[in-house]
Amino acid sequence: MRMKPSRHLLLGLCSMLALGFLYYSSGRISLQGWGRKSLYDKQGFLLKLDGGLPLELIYKYGNLSEGACKPGFAAAKMTAIYPKFTKVVPMFLDPNYKRFSKIGDYLPPFGIKSQEKIIDILLSATKSYGLGEELDSMSCKTCIIVGNGGILANKSLGQRIDQFDVVVRLNEAPVKGFEKDVGSKTTMRITYPEGAIQKIERYEAQSLFVLSAFKALDFNWLRHMVFNQRLQSTDGFWKSVARRVPREPSDMRILNPYFIQEASFKLIGLPYNNGQMGRGNIPTLGTVAITMALHNCDEVAVAGFGYNMSTPHAPLHYYEKIRMSAIKESWTHNISKEKEFLVKLVKAGVIQDWTNGICGAGC
């Protein structure tokens, strides 16, 4: 039986209305989705940081006794606020470092490109690539990064700092004479040629000497230190450098440059500059050390971090009389953007700031 033209017209009109309604509805849904505010900032961090534990972490850590080390805690909290975080990144370079293509694609300080030959020589001489048998075998490690800030002075935190499994110190910051405030234990001292201790007697009796290489020349400098060779020239360094490091090769390490790369480009959001060192795209050594700890420690604390420019007469470092006002705009660092990143970590409880210098009363 053939339909009348009017019925054809009516069915066509109904189909058009139905399609139009579906299109309009899907469009509204789509537009509403696009218009909804993101939960994350441009770096990929959760915008709302209240320090509370997600439900799954409450179940995981809620029954642990007070003061007990919480396995995987720092990485779990970091992942909760930054889902792109990947925990498995070794602290130091080892003979298998070439498996990390992310560092092979970049020149120093963000990678090892063009430095493979000298790195192989260094690693064959040091023969050790971890923290040591005792620490490497621990199922849960607590770590503290001790900054050099004047805020450490007169806090009497020395005993508490020494209770950590791993105590990380930076550059030439002294221990002797300041034990009451900064402790006496040093697991490792991370530095670069210009920041290394120059007076032999100021080195601790036992600690790992860890190079954080910011330029190709730094690897060549480390080769002289490892093989106890006389440094013929200091051309290319921006200030005087240590000419001897009183450590056996087995106590020397190379910090994985991935932490510089990740801190700069991913976590802080500094200028990419075609993957090369440029104005304002190098994180400070303290932030590099914190990034390293997030990947390799179960709990992470800091002390002696934070510059307070509103107190220009306050001491810049705990061990000297230079004032806060001595800080000038750095060509390589972006202190304000770096602080934004560190504030996120403190607010979310990823790290504990024992001297409360990163964000003060703002956290």
UniProtKB/TrEMBL annotation:
Main location: Golgi
The UniProt record lists the keyword Ribosomal protein: no
Localization annotation: Golgi apparatus membrane; Golgi apparatus, Golgi stack membrane
A Gene Ontology molecular function term of the record: N-acetyllactosaminide alpha-2,3-sialyltransferase activity
Catalytic activity: a beta-D-galactosyl-(1->4)-N-acetyl-beta-D-glucosaminyl derivative + CMP-N-acetyl-beta-neuraminate = an N-acetyl-alpha-neuraminyl-(2->3)-beta-D-galactosyl-(1->4)-N-acetyl-beta-D-glucosaminyl derivative + CMP + H(+)
Disulphides: C143-C297
EC numbers on record: 2.4.3.6
Pathway: Protein modification; protein glycosylation
Class of the enzyme per the UniProt entry, highest EC level: transferase
Keywords: Disulfide bond, Glycoprotein, Glycosyltransferase, Golgi apparatus, Membrane, Signal-anchor, Transferase, Transmembrane, Transmembrane helix
One matching Pfam family: Glyco_transf_29
Any Gene Ontology CC annotation: Golgi membrane
Membrane topology type: Single-pass type II membrane protein
Function: Catalyzes the formation of the NeuAc-alpha-2,3-Gal-beta-1,4-GlcNAc-, NeuAc-alpha-2,3-Gal-beta-1,3-GlcNAc- and NeuAc-alpha-2,3-Gal-beta-1,3-GalNAc- sequences found in terminal carbohydrate groups of glycoproteins and glycolipids. The highest activity is toward Gal-beta-1,3-GlcNAc and the lowest toward Gal-beta-1,3-GalNAc.
Family: Belongs to the glycosyltransferase 29 family.
Record-linked PANTHER family: CMP-N-ACETYLNEURAMINATE-BETA-1,4-GALACTOSIDE ALPHA-2,3-SIALYLTRANSFERASE, SIALYLTRANSFERASE
Name this polypeptide is given: CMP-N-acetylneuraminate-beta-1,4-galactoside alpha-2,3-sialyltransferase
Gene: LOC108896965
